[in-house]
């Protein structure tokens, strides 16, 4: 059961479905706490179990899907050109390859290209679905990694985050990442924060993620010692 602490980045009134630009389908970003991997069918059962939580349903204004519906959505999101998603794993649990990825899942991080006239604007969303992982730095590192990837690989120069007003932990985290509050929607009870990535902000962001290793997913999925032919 989920705790009373709202997952980072969940927006009341919306639950953008997970999607994945093909650009990241073979990309792994490994940080000290969090590792980001592409969303695949292997992750669907755990994700589906998360969304049975009444708390997550309430925070994301979602109706639970059947497992088969979740698989169908994963297949369709894979080809979506205006969304980029990674599943967040616990690096320590995952790195040894002793556990399956489903056992290492912590949450997900998404980037949505919401403005068709401005492809440099990305809306970012982070959800730490596992209660025991909240408040431990996983959300912050995963967000920084996604922002860095957005800047270096997707051409993003402006970020927005829309967060429920009651989610003070998430609002505070984004402000620590240099986001500024730019709007409050009293109807949807959400706050919009924004960061314009100047040259100075880009240097800061890349410095914050200088420890992150970028790998090829197909390579790290191979059994130890086995070479791809």
From TrEMBL:
It comes from the Eukaryota. InterPro entries: Acyl_CoA_acyltransferase, GNAT_dom, NAT9-like. Coiled coil: none annotated. Its EC number is 2.3.1.308. N-acetyltransferase that mediates the acetylation of the N-terminal residues of alpha- and beta-tubulin. Gene3D superfamilies: 3.40.630.30. Belongs to the acetyltransferase family. GNAT subfamily. Keywords: Acyltransferase, Transferase. It catalyses: N-terminal L-methionyl-[tubulin] + acetyl-CoA = N-terminal N(alpha)-acetyl-L-methionyl-[tubulin] + CoA + H(+). It comes from Asarcornis scutulata. The keyword Acyltransferase applies. GO terms for molecular function: tubulin N-terminal-methionine acetyltransferase activity. Residues 33-180 form the N-acetyltransferase domain. The keyword Transferase applies. This is Alpha/beta-tubulin-N-acetyltransferase 9. SUPFAM superfamilies: Acyl-CoA N-acyltransferases (Nat) (SSF55729). The gene is Nat9. It holds the Pfam family Acetyltransf_3.
């Amino acid at each position: 059961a989920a705790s009373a602490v709202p997952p980072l980045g969940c927006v009341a009134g919306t639950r953008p479905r997970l999607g994945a630009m093909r650009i990241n389908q073979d990309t792994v970003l490994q940080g000290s706490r969090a590792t980001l991997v592409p969303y695949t069918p292997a992750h669907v059962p755990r994700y589906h179990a998360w969304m049975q939580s009444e708390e997550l349903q309430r925070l994301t204004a979602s109706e639970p899907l059947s497992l088969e519906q979740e698989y169908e959505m994963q297949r369709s999101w894979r080809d979506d050109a205006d969304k980029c998603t990674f599943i967040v794993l616990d690096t320590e649990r995952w790195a040894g390859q002793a556990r399956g990825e489903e056992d290492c899942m912590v949450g997900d991080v998404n980037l949505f290209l919401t403005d068709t006239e401005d492809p440099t604007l990305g809306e970012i969303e982070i959800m730490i679905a596992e209660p025991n992982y909240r408040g431990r730095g996983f959300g912050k590192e995963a967000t920084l990694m996604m922002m860095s990837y957005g800047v270096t690989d997707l051409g993003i120069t402006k970020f927005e985050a829309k967060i429920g007003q009651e989610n003070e932990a998430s609002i505070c985290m984004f402000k620590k990442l240099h986001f500024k509050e730019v709007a409050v929607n009293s109807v949807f009870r959400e706050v919009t924060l924004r960061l314009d990535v100047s040259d100075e902000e880009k240097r800061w962001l890349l410095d914050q993620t200088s420890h992150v290793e970028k790998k090829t997913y197909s390579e790290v999925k191979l059994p130890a010692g086995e070479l791809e032919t």
